């Protein structure tokens, strides 16, 4: 009985304590951490500013007051000593004068004190006003700064958004550009692959030809061997018929062995013969290749040279746009001089066409042509020049 | 068996003939663009007296300003032929000239001048153009510009714009004591004529499509208002007088309407006024500043400046409805001017710390900066689309600059008195 | 704790809104305006003192006729509020007086757009005056954009002196 009571008491008390403690904890946390998030600068500057300013004004007032009092005291001293000297000279009038002077001095002093007090009061008032105004200004500035912070935050967000949008657009442009470039690269790659493919096919074809020849030689040799074999068998049969039956088995065996050996020898010979013919085939081919290679290389380098010079001298008119192309029919002398250059396929724009003609007119003569081997030179006597600009910006 | 051999032989023949060379085609994919070298030889003077104008100088300056030509310096000319018959073409080939202009001036029977000029293709060694024209003393500059037009068009295929005019505004003074004036001059800045003078600001001159009238903004009535003035007679009419801003007049391509910015309803909006009926149509409606309209060449709409996105950008509105933003590069783009072929937009773009003339290709969106100065304003395109005139600063003085539309060449025009600003290029006048 | 950041934010926002509500309409301050602003400040304080001294007199027209603006802004800066108050008082006290508010901008950017900017500034001043009780019929607005600079020259010190609204009585 007591236990459940105790438990009940515990059950109620602990949660209450915990709850209160939780709430207190939250309160404390918010109160404690909140001042940190406030801009500290404003708090300290406000405090500093007020302190410094009030001190200086009161100091200044005190200094002014004290220096003024000092001056007044000096003045009155000077006057008194003068009065005493004057009184010494004329004693009769001196007493009256002295009293009059004393009265005057006293009056002046009173006046100065009053003036000093008034000045002090005015200055105090001014200082108070200044302090009040400054406090007001500071409060306003604080408010404005807080507002500015909020505004700046908003502005920053807007800028961020705008930047993100711009970035998006830039990325889209970049992607499009990359895509275009990728397409271009793919195009080039495809072209190269096609070229490679053509070359591979060529090589494969040559290889196939050689192999076909080899197969044919083998086939011929095989056929020959077979024919001879048949002949030999016939002869052996005839010999066997002539000879005794008993010797036939041994002789047949012997003959078979001899025939096999002979066949083998023949096959080897045939193989050698075909191998020999294959070797000579290969030798001939390499000779042909090296000669052709040199000519091709020379032609290639001349073509590149021509491309370079014509391109350097090609000055497109300002109305040119991507997509404009013109083809010229060009004829050169063996010396590399230009004979004719005429438009065979116009771009539709006379100025663009003329710029192409002027390009080759300016680039000629191509004296390097004289060093070309005859086979290569003949290519460049009459050829087409196709102007397809890739560098016209839009 | 016979048939098979025949086919094989035929195939072999075919192979042989196809192997025997296909015609070589060489492809050129890159060029080297630069201004074309041209030799303009001082015209031979057969008049017996001195000539009031240097025609060859007018021609070579015009061609240079177009950005497309690089005239050979006069000191480097090795010979001074007057006609193509006196030309040794190899001399000019050696000089590097692609083209050659020669001419002769004689006195004409009516007291004026008879001018013969010829254009020669040096590389192809053939005469391209030749003509005899006449002109009086006062018409010599105009004849020079005419020859420039003919030579330019013959070589480039583009109509020359050297015989056009420019309008501009000058200001002398500061604060409340400024004297303003509106001028019209030749496209090279010569022969300026005062059209209007005032103690109050004059702004935004705009040529009518027929080249006979100028619309402009004048504050002479203590408030900005839009006026149209006939250049021949000097007669003018005040077209608007609303409260607030009346500004940025822009003629429609058919010359019957004026687009403008009016702030009578609270803030500047784009309106179109039918000149004959004086009826107004409001085209924009938002709290932003909408101003500086410029019609599209086909009259279907216009571009204008708006800061509805926070800072000035250029938008396009279609008269049939719909507005679309055009500029996205940088956070300040204003004062858009469409090229005559409708393909490019010229404008003032703020980049880094300066305000510069820029060109945007309307198809690709690509933006190119055409100037590298800092306080550029008021770009205006020549009617053949090849040159742009604009206002800029030399020190603290306003001067006019000119740049070719491809950005290749920059020139500043001979500056008139005081501060010069707000140039406007006329349409073709002939 | 999970909601302390929110609590912080809420309390900060609460205090901000309280301060914003209590303070007068302020604006952002860009650009350096030392000499001009201090001049305006002392002038402002003088007129403030005068007004405090002579509460309801329709005495002299306020001396300070020009207020300045930050780059690309048309908000009234706090240091000019007393100047505007002075003009508002004067106009309310002299209902036959009319003023033309001339709006200006600095030279940067294009001219017609700058007409719009100058007009925005003049409108901002007009709004302030009418909120203070000045009758709109006494106020007229003209914008000169960059056409009438007070000072020639490039650079922020010149620009700051050109971004202004002028009271033209």
From TrEMBL, chain B:
Name of the protein: Tol-Pal system protein TolB
First and last residue of the signal peptide: 1-22
Classification via NCBIfam families: propeller_TolB
Pfam families reported in the protein's UniProt record: PD40, TolB_N
PANTHER family: PROTEIN TOLB (PTHR36842:SF1), PROTEIN TOLB HOMOLOG (PTHR36842)
Domain TolB N-terminal, first and last residues per copy: 24-127
Protein location: Periplasm
Keywords for the protein's UniProt record, in alphabetical order: Cell cycle, Cell division, Periplasm, Signal
Domain of life: Bacteria
Family: Belongs to the TolB family.
Keyword Cell wall biogenesis/degradation in annotation: no
Its biological purpose: Part of the Tol-Pal system, which plays a role in outer membrane invagination during cell division and is important for maintaining outer membrane integrity.
Complex formation: The Tol-Pal system is composed of five core proteins: the inner membrane proteins TolA, TolQ and TolR, the periplasmic protein TolB and the outer membrane protein Pal. They form a network linking the inner and outer membranes and the peptidoglycan layer.
